[in-house]
Amino acid sequence: xxxxxxxxxxxxxxxxxxLYDTEGRCLAxxxxxxxxxxxxxxxxxxxxxxxxDSVVRSTxxxxxxxxxDPQGIACLAISGHSLGCVPLDAEGRxxxxxxxxxxxxxxxxxxxxxxxxxxxxxxxxxxxxGFPPPHYTVFKVMWYRDHEPExxxxxxxxxxxxDYVNYRLTGRIATDCSYASGSGVYDLLAWDYxxxxxxxxxxxxxxxxxxxxxxEILGPLTAEAAGALGLPRSVKVAxxxxxxxxxxxxxxxxxxxxxxxxxxxxxxxxxSSEKPLLDEKAxxxxxxxxxxxxxxxxxxIFSGGTSLQWVRDKLCANLVARAKEEGKDPYDVMxxxxxxxxxxxxxxxxxPSLAGGSSLDASPHVRGALLGLDLGHTQADVVRAALEGxxxxxxxxxxxxxxxxxxxxxxxxxxxxxRSKLWRQIFADALEINILKTNVGQEAGSLGAxxxxxxxxxxxxxxxxxxxxxxxxxxxxxxxxxxxVYRRLLPAFRxxxxxxxxxxxVLAELDLAADG
Length: 516
Fold this sequence. Notes:
With 516 residues, this protein is an alpha/beta fold. The protein has 18 helices and 24 strands. Helix 1 crosses helix 6 (161-170) and helix 13 (330-338) crosses helix 14 (379-404). The termini are far apart. The model has no long low-confidence stretch (mean pLDDT 95).
């Protein structure tokens, strides 16, 4: 009996193919990267052919490791990065070799045209699309229509990232609710595309793929796909889900109020609930969950791990060199040094907005800063302030989510930052919540895709099995003394964020090349 699952985590940087057994244990994984192209300012594109090649190569390399018999693979599912915009003609052929990805923001004019017809607040309340509007698929489709009419005229379907790969796997074009909810024209509470929003965009419903459950089997592998992957045609392909929702599932956000934090390049906190958490001030971005009847609502900071990486690369060259000599991870050396600094880093504050402001900030022009720096501060204080600044910024995120809905008393952390014991304790103290480290770590997206596949092909009775996969390794409990310090720092951190936003607006208007 086929009892192995193939999960693909199709991320911004590449595809990770993983094999899972029926207990949800990861047997092996292989990552194959692909490039993002930046042909013009604000244009971020990838090649759909590169996604397919990455899936093929990672799967073949995975099978070559011998962790599982290809004949024993029952099903596969993909977690795909969001807001893709791949135009296909009536024969399913690519109409553009490179297509915009989620971070592409070229269609600002198209968004402005749309909001002449639809109130922006009403659009957000209906869709939960809390990113800046130009990122969403509908506006990229409108951009095709306005700037590449020959492409638009031939387009029969516009599909997303994982849905394009699913088409290559099965020959069927479809999407699921979680991915469709990032289209810009999806009504969260109706669980369907909105005819009103489509009319405002002047786009036909037929241009978008049909919506099916994440667990629907789209079909077996085509003969061509089976040959390319080195798999039997009997492998079933589930529709899968958007990365945000698959990660929520993999992080065990399967019940009302469950919360997780992702500590990666960008960082966010997400809550799962039966109603979307919507607020025009904080603008949580909401996706339909891969679990029927649920939503995942999140607020992000754009530069979490990347801000810490900047500190590593620009301010800690000596620690990087020491780590190389000692055969250690540079971040381990950095956090060991940070532990020598007291809680609060001697009143040194770090604003991690090195990539600009998110919906949480008073201005998109806000930039990062070290604030309160004096001659008595040490490198240890700087590193600790960076760790604390990211945590305090996420405390502002959590406060907004707590204001909008029910948040539990514990939070699972996933992503690279979850490895640090010191940082987990800082998060527990700054956020005033128990921080749970489990065996899942950086595999949440892959595990979510695997769980979708397991339910789709009947190996699991339901998503509740995800709780059995997570094995608790450590709980960081808030320390009352440390909590008191962060409570005193938090108003200063909030004020500093507002001041940085005002300063960012001033700097954005400066023209340093001007005469005089």
